[in-house]
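Reopening this ticket.

The earlier resolution said the output was attached, but the attachment link was broken on my side. Pasting everything inline this time so it's all in one place.
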Amino acid sequence: MPIPDFVVELRRHVGQSRLWLPAVTAVVVHERRLLMVRRADNGAWTPITGIMEPGEEPAVAAVREALEETGVQVRADRLAQVSSGHEVTHANGDLAVYLDLTFACSYVSGEAHVADDESSDVHWWPLDDLPRMTPVLTGRVEAAISGESAARYVG
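Inline output:
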């Protein structure tokens, strides 16, 4: 489901006004390859991202999003980065600012495939040959594959 039910309900009250939303990015690496999705709305290749459900633990959300979007079961190994600050205007005009919690994740099982309508393709990309991404997403991937033990805090 592209837009969680609780966000749809909020939008009934606030329209397209800016919302502050908690989100996760799951950077899934297996055998030096990164699992990425091609977004159906804009064609961009990205790591797995999604909005947390109310009361959901962040690592659980990252694991859930990976399964929902790619059919792959993953393990959230560590919090890699915390970031926020840039406003996003979605294709439908909705405004949002996300508090993103990026997790370094490991593959557990499953065959990667398009598992929802948010993506048009799913692919394992070699770490040394990733497709173009925005600087924000590149930073999330770099933090996750850095091998650092502490999370990065982007201001």
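Reporter confirms the inline version is readable. The mean pLDDT is 95. Strands lie at 19-30, 33-39, 45-46, 48-51, 73-83, 87-89, 95-109, 119-126, 152-153.
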